Structures are given as structure tokens and as C-alpha cells.
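Exercise: predict the fold of this chain.
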Amino acid sequence: MKEFIIKPGHLSRIELWAGTTIYVFAVFFLVTTTSPAEERHYFDKAHIAFDFFDNYLFPQLATYTAVYLTFLLLNFRVVPALVRKENILLNTFIIAGLLMLLGLCLGIVGTYSRAYLFGVYPKEDDFNAYIFNLSYRDAFSILFMFGVYSMIKYSSVYLLSNSEAISSKFSIITRDALIAFILWMISVFILLLGDLDSELVICWVVLIPFAILFYCYSCYKLLPVAFGKKRPFMAYLLKSLLLMALAFIPIAAIILLFTNDEEVGFGGSFFNAAFQLLITAPMSWVLYKRRLQGNQEINVLQKALGKSNANLDFLRSQINPHFLFNALNTIYATAINEKAERTSEAVEKLGEMMRFMLHENVQDKISLAREIEYLNNYIGLQKLRTEHNPVLTIEAHIEQNLDPHYIAPMLLIPFVENAFKHGISFRENSLIRIVLEVKDKTLNFDVYNSKHEKPEHDPEKNKSGIGLNNVKQRLQLLYPGRHELTIRETGKEFFIHLTVQLS
């Protein structure tokens, strides 16, 4: 269906093949008919000689051909131009001309196919007036049906192509409901083409729209509330029964407006209530449960994808980490032998960070103590790098001994990295403050840093990096409804406050 919407040519080809096939089969059955009993009966009753070719085959063939050519011209030339608002006046004249020509054609062939009526009218002019009045009425009906078909086609394409926008703007309307509404319009068109009982058509016209509205309301209101109850299906069924009771009189009144028959009105309303309770309500329940299951599967896939993307972003910054880890061990041993304490301390902290990224970053959750240890190593390295800078102050107040709590790995470090990336200046006063504490399984994490304008030649000046966006995505996927992130930024300051409900 999406392909038909994106490429309307596919739909046009299907319409052309369908219309041509119907025309060919109609002609085939026409020419293979040897004795049209009904038409012959009318001529015999009027005591007028019946000729198969003049009074049946040629008139019917001319009628089928005229209707087929009208369909081609309207469907592939006139209506598309009107929809695009091109040459509106010209195409309006074409429609009026088609009405005149089609009525004339049907009138001419009608004088042959209905020649048995000639004896009913005393004058030939009266006979011709009746035939042509009937032909123009039929021509108008044919054009009207083509108009209804075009309306259904273009409205269906519009609804399907904009279903996501409609559903997002009106949350009560679902894509399933739009598809059901389109199918209902098609069914009404088919019913109008057929010579069916009017009471059946009226009941169908009322019943299906009510079923669509009931389905939308169930998915929007009844089912979400019912699933919070101990016995959800029973709660949903009772509310549906109450809704049907409230709608019984209004539905009966609507049917009475068309039929003026109390028996049909109340009978149709009772049938509507039974149909909604026995068919629509259970179907809505099943479809809603499937949607919930599908949403859960999507959430699981999104979490897996988010974690994979986050891990990939971290891995992209690593070049053969096992080789680097082994090289650091060698440098660390050399620094110890040469009594270079600051160098050995820095290498040790960096080695612990690499060990963490190699072995624990791939897990779903780790102990909060290990995450904090990684943070402390990172902050320690930054202090070693900047400890001789008199204008820089680094304050870290991080609660320790948090072994019982668990958290997704590498969730906190991007905020700290961002603070050191943008908060350090070797010429201006700079402050970085980091506070972490846990109360009642709630982690509170604050990071504050001063901001400094980067030099024009700095390659990082216009780069925001992937860290903060990555961690925002991971928080949404891993802690939906269980976290709160506040970011406040001015020209000179940057502050984040994060709360996470831990497991």
C-alpha cells in the first residue's frame, strides 16, 4: 500500500487493468449470450418482433463501450487534473459535455433496446421524451458513481499517506481505524451499486461507523483503564455494556430518521449493540493486546540497539585496546624502576580505566562502586594533568561504599568528561564541582563547570561530541520513567542534575 501511495502510477495501472478486464468480460458474456429471455419476454408481451442484434447485442455493446470510455477519460484525465487544481473551468466543461454525450448515447441505444415501449405511447415524440429523460438520469447516476469512486480513492490515499500525522495529532485515531474506515467506504460504494434492500444498507451505514468509533474509544480510554484492574476483561466488558446501553436510544433514533419504522429502528439498534459486544469488543481486546506486545518488543529492540550504538561509540575511540593495555603495563613497570611516582600513578589509573572498558563496559549492569571507581580514576588523571594550574579548582564529593547498588556502565562519565572538556582554562579562573550521593535507592549526581570560549584555531571549537547525546539516549532506553535529567547552561556556566532510580 505504501508503494501505491509513493508511486501513484502503480495504482493507475491496477485501475486500468481492472477496468479493462471488467469491460472485456462484460463484452465476452454479452456476445456468448444466445437468448436473452427477459428482453425477449418484454417484446413478446408488447407483440413486437425481437431482433437479437438490433434490440440487444448492439445496444448493450454500445452502452458498455460508452461507460468504459467515460471511465477512462474521467479517471485518468479529468479527475486528476481537478485534484491538482489544473484547468478547473475546462475540465468542468468536459464533465458537462460527457454528461450530454453519455445521455445522448444511452438515449439512442434505448430507442432500440426499449422499443417494446413504443406501443405504450400514442406519439413517437412522447416515447422519445421518456427514453431520453431516462437516459440522462442514468448518465447522471453513472457520473455520480464515478465521482463517489474518485472521492473514496483519493481520500483513502490521503488518509493512508498521512496516517502517522493524523494519529500523532489525534491520539484517539489509530491506523487500524483509518483502514477500517476506508474499507467501510468501499463497502458502501459496492452496496450502492447493487440493488439491495434499503433497510440493510441503512443498518450497514450506521453499524460500521459506530464499530470504528467504539474501537477507537476502547483503545484510547476503555482498554488502558481496564488493564489496570484485577480482572481487566470483565471490567472492559462491563464498561462496553454500559456504553451500548447509553447508545441504544440514539442509534435507534438515527435509523428512524431514514426508515420511519420503529420496528426497524429498535431492531437495528439491538442488532448494533449485539454486534459491538460480540464482535467489535473482543476484536478490540485482541488487537490492543497485540499492539502492547508489539510495543514491548520494539522497546526491547530499541534498548538493545541503543546499547549497541553506545558501545560502538566507545569502541570507535579505542585502537587495539589490548595492545595499549599491555604497553601501559610495561611503561608502569619502567616508571616504578626509575622511581617516577607521578608517572606510575598516572599509568596505574589509566590502566584501571582501560581494564574497566575492556571487561565491564560490555555488561548490562555493574555495581555502582565500580562505576565510581572509574570516575575517581578519571578525575585523578585530570588532577595530575592540571595540578600545577593555580586558576583551576576541582572539587569532587563522591559517596563511597555503594556495593549493593547497580547501574548501567559508563552512564555518568560523559557528564564529567564534558565538564573537563569545556570547563578548563589555563588563563582564566576555572571551577569543576562533582557531587554524587545515594538516598533510598535514588542516585543524585551533580556536575558543575565554568565555561570558556575556545580559541578560533581549536579544532574542537564547533564540535559538540557524541557523549551527552549518547547518554541522553541511553537514559531514555534503560531508565524510562525512572530518571530525571536537568541541564542548565549560560554563557559562563554549565550545570547538570541527574537522578536515577537504582536497582
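Check your answer against the key: The chain is about 70% helix and 10% strand.
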